[in-house]
Protein backbone atom coordinates (compact mmCIF):
# COMPACT_ATOMS: atom_id res chain seq x y z
CA UNK A 1 0.00 0.00 0.00
CA UNK A 2 1.20 3.47 -0.85
CA UNK A 3 -0.09 6.96 -0.39
CA UNK A 4 -0.22 8.96 -3.61
CA UNK A 5 0.02 12.62 -2.72
CA UNK A 6 -0.49 14.06 -6.18
CA UNK A 7 -2.44 13.46 -9.32
CA UNK A 8 -0.50 12.67 -12.48
CA UNK A 9 -1.79 15.18 -15.03
CA UNK A 10 -0.67 14.98 -18.66
CA UNK A 11 1.39 11.82 -19.19
CA UNK A 12 3.40 11.29 -22.38
CA UNK A 13 5.95 8.62 -21.42
CA UNK A 14 5.62 5.02 -20.29
CA UNK A 15 4.23 4.18 -16.87
CA UNK A 16 4.96 0.54 -16.07
CA UNK A 17 3.32 -0.58 -12.84
CA UNK A 18 5.28 -3.86 -12.96
CA UNK A 19 2.17 -5.72 -11.77
CA UNK A 20 1.76 -3.63 -8.63
CA UNK A 21 -1.62 -2.93 -7.07
CA UNK A 22 -2.67 0.52 -5.86
CA UNK A 23 -5.36 0.23 -3.19
CA UNK A 24 -7.68 2.96 -1.97
CA UNK A 25 -6.95 5.73 -4.47
CA UNK A 26 -9.38 8.55 -3.65
CA UNK A 27 -10.09 11.91 -5.21
CA UNK A 28 -12.99 14.23 -4.53
CA UNK A 29 -13.14 16.61 -7.49
CA UNK A 30 -16.39 18.06 -6.19
CA UNK A 31 -14.33 20.29 -3.93
CA UNK A 32 -12.13 22.11 -6.37
CA UNK A 33 -10.68 24.94 -4.36
CA UNK A 34 -7.70 25.54 -2.17
CA UNK A 35 -7.09 27.96 0.65
CA UNK A 36 -4.52 30.68 -0.12
CA UNK A 37 -3.96 33.51 2.34
CA UNK A 38 -7.39 32.95 3.86
CA UNK A 39 -9.32 33.01 0.57
CA UNK A 40 -10.67 30.22 -1.64
CA UNK A 41 -9.09 29.93 -5.07
CA UNK A 42 -10.36 27.60 -7.76
CA UNK A 43 -8.13 24.84 -9.08
CA UNK A 44 -9.05 22.02 -11.44
CA UNK A 45 -9.01 18.60 -9.78
CA UNK A 46 -9.26 15.57 -12.05
CA UNK A 47 -10.59 12.34 -10.53
CA UNK A 48 -8.59 9.73 -12.50
CA UNK A 49 -5.11 8.46 -11.65
CA UNK A 50 -4.01 10.26 -14.83
CA UNK A 51 -5.75 13.17 -16.50
CA UNK A 52 -4.70 12.92 -20.16
CA UNK A 53 -2.53 10.03 -21.37
CA UNK A 54 -0.60 10.45 -24.61
CA UNK A 55 1.91 7.70 -23.80
CA UNK A 56 1.60 4.16 -22.42
CA UNK A 57 0.18 2.87 -19.15
CA UNK A 58 0.79 -0.83 -18.50
CA UNK A 59 0.79 -3.54 -15.84
CA UNK A 60 -0.95 -1.63 -13.04
CA UNK A 61 -4.07 -2.46 -11.04
CA UNK A 62 -6.12 0.04 -9.07
CA UNK A 63 -8.46 -1.45 -6.46
CA UNK A 64 -11.04 0.18 -4.20
CA UNK A 65 -10.80 3.57 -5.94
CA UNK A 66 -13.36 6.16 -4.87
CA UNK A 67 -13.78 9.20 -7.13
CA UNK A 68 -16.33 11.96 -7.28
CA UNK A 69 -16.43 13.79 -10.59
CA UNK A 70 -17.20 17.38 -11.40
CA UNK A 71 -17.34 19.27 -14.66
CA UNK A 72 -15.09 22.27 -14.16
CA UNK A 73 -15.34 23.41 -17.78
CA UNK A 74 -16.93 21.82 -20.87
CA UNK A 75 -13.49 20.46 -21.81
CA UNK A 76 -13.02 18.49 -18.58
CA UNK A 77 -16.08 16.24 -18.39
CA UNK A 78 -14.62 12.72 -18.92
CA UNK A 79 -13.56 10.72 -15.88
CA UNK A 80 -12.16 7.20 -15.42
CA UNK A 81 -10.27 5.33 -12.71
CA UNK A 82 -7.02 4.88 -14.68
CA UNK A 83 -7.34 7.93 -16.95
CA UNK A 84 -9.83 10.65 -17.64
CA UNK A 85 -8.78 10.83 -21.32
CA UNK A 86 -6.69 8.45 -23.44
CA UNK A 87 -5.47 10.48 -26.44
CA UNK A 88 -5.04 9.08 -29.96
CA UNK A 89 -1.35 8.34 -29.27
CA UNK A 90 -2.14 6.69 -25.93
CA UNK A 91 -2.18 3.01 -25.00
CA UNK A 92 -3.33 1.17 -21.90
CA UNK A 93 -2.67 -2.56 -21.63
CA UNK A 94 -2.58 -5.28 -18.97
CA UNK A 95 -4.33 -3.00 -16.48
CA UNK A 96 -7.30 -3.31 -14.20
CA UNK A 97 -9.52 -0.96 -12.26
CA UNK A 98 -12.11 -1.53 -9.55
CA UNK A 99 -13.89 1.06 -7.48
CA UNK A 100 -16.51 3.78 -7.62
CA UNK A 101 -17.07 6.95 -9.60
CA UNK A 102 -20.06 9.13 -8.88
CA UNK A 103 -21.27 12.60 -9.70
CA UNK A 104 -22.22 15.13 -7.07
CA UNK A 105 -25.51 13.56 -6.11
CA UNK A 106 -24.86 14.74 -2.56
CA UNK A 107 -27.63 17.30 -1.84
CA UNK A 108 -25.05 19.64 -0.30
CA UNK A 109 -23.02 19.78 -3.53
CA UNK A 110 -25.52 18.71 -6.21
CA UNK A 111 -25.41 20.52 -9.54
CA UNK A 112 -27.64 18.49 -11.90
CA UNK A 113 -27.15 20.90 -14.80
CA UNK A 114 -23.41 20.23 -14.89
CA UNK A 115 -23.48 16.69 -13.49
CA UNK A 116 -25.59 15.54 -16.45
CA UNK A 117 -22.71 16.48 -18.79
CA UNK A 118 -20.23 14.16 -17.06
CA UNK A 119 -19.07 10.99 -18.84
CA UNK A 120 -17.74 8.14 -16.66
CA UNK A 121 -15.91 4.95 -17.60
CA UNK A 122 -14.63 2.20 -15.33
CA UNK A 123 -11.17 2.42 -16.92
CA UNK A 124 -11.21 5.68 -18.92
CA UNK A 125 -13.72 8.46 -19.46
CA UNK A 126 -12.79 9.11 -23.12
CA UNK A 127 -10.84 6.62 -25.22
CA UNK A 128 -9.32 7.87 -28.47
CA UNK A 129 -6.35 5.48 -28.31
CA UNK A 130 -5.90 1.74 -27.78
CA UNK A 131 -6.97 -0.26 -24.72
CA UNK A 132 -6.25 -4.01 -24.69
CA UNK A 133 -6.02 -6.89 -22.22
CA UNK A 134 -7.69 -4.78 -19.52
CA UNK A 135 -10.55 -5.21 -17.12
CA UNK A 136 -12.80 -2.87 -15.19
CA UNK A 137 -15.12 -3.68 -12.32
CA UNK A 138 -16.61 -0.40 -11.21
CA UNK A 139 -19.72 1.03 -9.65
CA UNK A 140 -20.62 4.03 -11.78
CA UNK A 141 -23.31 6.54 -10.86
CA UNK A 142 -24.09 9.16 -13.45
CA UNK A 143 -25.87 10.17 -16.64
CA UNK A 144 -23.47 8.78 -19.32
CA UNK A 145 -21.63 5.69 -18.05
CA UNK A 146 -19.77 2.77 -19.63
CA UNK A 147 -18.10 -0.23 -18.02
CA UNK A 148 -14.72 0.07 -19.76
CA UNK A 149 -14.99 3.54 -21.32
CA UNK A 150 -17.56 6.28 -21.13
CA UNK A 151 -17.02 7.41 -24.71
CA UNK A 152 -15.11 5.16 -27.15
CA UNK A 153 -13.57 6.82 -30.21
CA UNK A 154 -10.58 4.46 -30.27
CA UNK A 155 -10.10 0.70 -29.95
CA UNK A 156 -11.10 -1.60 -27.09
CA UNK A 157 -9.69 -5.10 -27.50
CA UNK A 158 -9.63 -8.25 -25.35
CA UNK A 159 -11.33 -6.56 -22.42
CA UNK A 160 -13.58 -7.62 -19.58
CA UNK A 161 -16.00 -5.56 -17.58
CA UNK A 162 -18.37 -6.34 -14.75
CA UNK A 163 -19.91 -3.64 -12.65
CA UNK A 164 -22.86 -1.88 -11.13
CA UNK A 165 -24.33 0.93 -13.19
CA UNK A 166 -26.59 3.48 -11.51
CA UNK A 167 -28.04 5.34 -14.47
CA UNK A 168 -29.43 8.78 -13.54
CA UNK A 169 -31.11 9.77 -16.78
CA UNK A 170 -33.94 11.60 -14.97
CA UNK A 171 -35.71 12.23 -18.27
CA UNK A 172 -32.69 13.98 -19.81
CA UNK A 173 -32.27 12.94 -23.46
CA UNK A 174 -28.96 12.06 -25.11
CA UNK A 175 -27.50 10.22 -22.09
CA UNK A 176 -26.43 6.58 -22.31
CA UNK A 177 -25.32 3.60 -20.25
CA UNK A 178 -23.46 0.59 -21.64
CA UNK A 179 -21.67 -2.49 -20.34
CA UNK A 180 -18.55 -1.88 -22.45
CA UNK A 181 -18.97 1.77 -23.50
CA UNK A 182 -21.76 4.31 -23.16
CA UNK A 183 -21.15 5.50 -26.72
CA UNK A 184 -19.01 3.94 -29.44
CA UNK A 185 -17.90 5.29 -32.82
CA UNK A 186 -14.89 3.04 -33.42
CA UNK A 187 -13.70 -0.50 -32.58
CA UNK A 188 -14.73 -2.97 -29.87
CA UNK A 189 -13.21 -6.43 -30.41
CA UNK A 190 -13.38 -9.53 -28.20
CA UNK A 191 -14.80 -7.78 -25.14
Structural class: mainly beta
Please report the number of helical segments: 1
- How large a portion of the residues is in β-strands, by DSSP E? over 45%
- The overall pLDDT, averaged over residues, is 82
Task: Please tell me how large the radius of gyration is.
Answer: 15 Å
Largest sheet: 11 strands, parallel
Spans where pLDDT lies below 50 across 5 or more residues: 1-7, 31-35
Percent helix, as a range, is under 10%
- The number of E-state strands comes to 22
Distance between termini? 30 Å
Shape: globular
The arrangement of helices and strands along the chain is EEEEEEEEEEHEEEEEEEEEEEE
Itemize the secondary structure elements and their pairings.
Elements (H helix, E strand, L loop, with lengths): L13 E10 L2 E3 L4 E4 L2 E4 L7 E4 L2 E13 L9 E3 L2 E4 L4 E3 L2 E7 L9 H4 L3 E3 L2 E4 L2 E3 L2 E8 L1 E3 L2 E4 L2 E3 L2 E2 L2 E4 L9 E2 L2 E4 L2 E3 L2
Parallel strand pairs: 1-6, 2-6, 5-8, 6-9, 6-10, 7-11, 8-12, 9-13, 10-14, 11-15, 12-16, 13-17, 14-18, 14-19, 15-20, 16-21, 17-22
Antiparallel strand pairs: 3-4
Amino acid sequence: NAVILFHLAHHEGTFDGNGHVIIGLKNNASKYYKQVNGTHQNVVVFPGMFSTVKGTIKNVFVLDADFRGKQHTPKFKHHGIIADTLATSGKIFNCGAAGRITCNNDPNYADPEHDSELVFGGLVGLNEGLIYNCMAMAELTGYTIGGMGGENKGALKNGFTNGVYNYLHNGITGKYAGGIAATNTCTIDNC
